[in-house]
Design goal:
- 45% of the residues lie in helices and 15% in strands.
- The protein is α/β, with parallel strands linked by helices.
- The protein has a 5-stranded mixed beta sheet with strand order 3-2-1-4-5, sandwiched between helices.
């Protein structure tokens, strides 16, 4: 990205009257509550992108499932591929089954993102390696809708080693944790399947959290912040 592109003001997205109305109807985000982990509605999200560059690459698809009442609610699921016919496709995108035909047949990004945020409502979000998904989703929402994402995002990739300190892994991936807990995942490597796998892992971690006296989303985030600060201190 050139210096000039940073200095020039970004164009405000042009939305149809229907899209503007949909945007105005989105509920505001709620902070993490002091209710129990079981009572909290969580949206578990996974993004497929055109690459890993946080500033240049684009979101190609979103998959999400809901954890509610202590279980995955398969009746609440979201999957959408974006219309991005000119997006550069790297080999990992093709691995996920998002070839040119699937992307060319996708939804308008603004419509897809509006539908996704309506699906999320005011719920907090969970993802594996959440900082990447959070950054990419935040950027996509700003560029397509002029919308500022303020929903809490918890990182399952960080929760797992915090709550399972006996597992001495460094930067373990989702597949390693799936194998560690012997989860039976029939499909992988598309957004919806990865969101479901992350949700199954999250339920195990919530059980571990409760066993350690952590039984609210607010407390879970506080413990995670403390754990990450200690890690940073010990890394110096």
């Amino acid at each position: 990205m050139s210096l000039l592109s940073w200095l020039l003001p970004r164009k405000k997205p042009v939305l149809s009257p229907e899209q503007q109305q949909h945007l105005l109807q989105l509920p505001p985000a709620s902070g993490l509550s002091d209710t129990t982990l079981r009572k909290q509605r969580w949206v578990v999200v996974d993004l497929e992108t055109s690459g890993l560059n946080l500033n240049r690459d684009q979101v190609l698809s979103i998959g999400a499932v809901v954890i509610e009442d202590g279980a995955i609610d398969l009746g609440q699921a979201f999957e959408r591929t974006f219309l991005r016919p000119d997006a550069p496709l790297n080999p990992s995108v093709l691995l996920h089954g998002l070839g040119p035909a699937a992307i060319a047949a996708g939804s308008d990004p603004a419509d897809a993102l509006l539908d996704f945020m309506a699906f999320v409502g005011d719920s907090p979000l969970l993802a594996f390696h959440a900082p990447f998904d959070q950054h990419m989703l935040t950027r996509a929402l700003k560029e397509s809708l002029g919308y500022r994402l303020q929903h809490p995002f918890l990182d399952v990739a960080a929760l797992a080693p915090m709550l399972c300190p006996q597992v001495n892994w460094r930067d373990a991936g989702l597949d390693q944790w799936i194998n560690h807990f012997s989860l039976q995942i029939e499909d992988r490597h598309n957004a919806s399947a990865d969101a479901l796998a992350t949700a199954e892992l999250a339920l195990i971690l919530f059980s571990r959290a409760r066993a350690q006296g952590i039984d609210s989303p607010q407390t879970l985030q506080q413990r995670l912040n403390q754990w990450q600060r200690r890690k940073q201190v010990h890394s110096f």
